[in-house]
Amino acid sequence: MMNPVDTNVAIVGGGIVGISIGLACLDRGLTVALYDPGDARRRASYGNAGAISRGSIFPVASPLIKNGLWQYAINRSPGLFIDYASIHRIWPWMFRFLLSSNTSAWRRAAKMLDPFVASAFAEHERLASLCGASHLLALDGWMKLFRTPESFAASQLERDILGEYDIAVDILGGADIRALEPALKRTFAAGILFPQTGHVRDPGALLEAYETLFVERGGRRLMMNVDAITNQDDGCTIEAATPMRAGKVVLAAGAWSDGIARRLGYRFPMAAERGYHRHFTVGEGPKLTRTIYDVGGAYVAAPMNQGIRILSGIELAPRDAPPRTAQLDHAVREARSTLDLGGPVENEPWVGARPSTPDGLPIIGWAPRHPNLLFAFGHGHIGLSTGPVTGQIVADLLIRRTPAIPVSGFAPDRFL
Ligand SMILES: Cc1cc2nc3c(=O)[nH]c(=O)nc-3n(C[C@H](O)[C@H](O)[C@H](O)COP(=O)(O)OP(=O)(O)OC[C@H]3O[C@@H](n4cnc5c(N)ncnc54)[C@H](O)[C@@H]3O)c2cc1C
Fold it and tell me: 383 CB less than 6 Å from ligand 1?
């Protein structure tokens, strides 16, 4: 006889991925319980750059990595810092990352990510309109800025591939850039404007609005950690302060997911790609109107409700290691040479971890040895954008419907 379940679906993790899955499951008439300890600031979904870009179809593992390999290896690039004290934990990720850093793997990944990101902004618009949060979204584009003609020339392959997928870009000269963003003090050699890019002006507030919608629609929110997931033939048990029997469990705990999966016998080659941000007040002059990525300065500047959010490069370090702010300090120095920034808004910078797979593709699909467990993590640099799309995919998988987007490339068993 089947044991009764307390909920059709239990979700572990309440970042943008978990909450979006919860909402999509409720839409399909399932009962849903979502476990998350509730500390919003520790989520990647809180502290990101807020970009929802149609052009984000490229993994970090690119053929261009080889050009800077030595600089990266000896920690001489502000865009990447490797914590060698923890290298023993991430070498499986690094090994596969380097194997993926070639043109054909990059092209293959772009092909899989293109349909995944195509409806990302539309999905956010739909959710935001349901919870009165549309004012947090804008379709104002973002710019990638190059300080030298050589660094712009190195982006040729990226531009070619974007063209193959009909993703609109405008190529800008120095004067065009200045005309679009008079707030920039520096003259750039060239730029790429991605006009089809959405922008979230406060990712933390957007997630809060989605959480409220989840509860209003009947979702059950449990503010606690899941200690373990145990599998039975007819469901799973969530071990937590409030335990629960669920028909299906979705593991969507971002950079914490691989640790939880490991206890069930799955070893994914994941890494925490940490990033930092801090907000700054803006001067009296012209204001930055859209997000910029200054490639030579290795920082992103995003206009947010809190001020200008300056974000640093990548730090490969354990998820909970003490903060090391040298990259952010560098980013702020470079940003100050380009933008008229006032004082910092917060006392301390924010640090958080992208759940990163070596091939830059998320892990979405049924757990190979646990028929009632589904994985949905590893969204790397595009999780804010693709959380709601992931929600649709996972909810379809749970009701045994074929998702609208091909997901075979995201299957967990590619790593196992
Ligand atoms: C600096 C930076 C800039 C970025 N910029 C962008 C961008 O511009 N655009 C974009 O699309 N993406 C961006 N990203 C990536 C994006 O933020 C992430 O991919 C996305 O937020 C991951 O969402 P998540 O829900 O998987 O994880 P998180 O948001 O990290 O949420 C995971 C949740 O799981 C919970 N959890 C952990 N363990 C347990 C447990 N045992 N039980 C219950 N709950 C648990 C955690 O408390 C947390 O709330 C950026 C990331 C960073 C760090």
Answer: yes
Report the predicted TM-score, pTM, of the whole model to 2 decimal places: 0.98
Per-residue 3-state assignment (H helix, E strand, C coil) for 286-311: CCCCCEEEECCCCEEEEEECCEEEEE
One DSSP character per residue, 22-87 reads HHHHHHTT--EEEE----GGGSHHHHS--EEETT----S--GGGGGGHHHHHTT--TTEEE-GGGH
Position 321 scores a pLDDT of: 96
3-class state of residue 322 by DSSP: coil
3-state secondary structure of 384: helix
100, 61 contact by CB (below 8 A): yes
206 within ligand 1 shell (Cβ under 6 A): no
| CB within 8 Å of 326: residues ≥ 6 apart | 81
Query: Which amino acid type is present at position 369?
Result: R
Adjacency order of strands within the sheet including 51-53 = 51-53, 197-200, 137-138
Atom of ligand 1 nearest to the CA of 40: 49
Q: In this structure, are residues 196 and 141 in contact, taking their beta carbons and an 8 Å threshold? A: yes
Structure tokens at 368: 């190979």
**What share of the chain in percent tops pLDDT 90?**
94
Predicted local confidence at residue 67, as pLDDT? 85
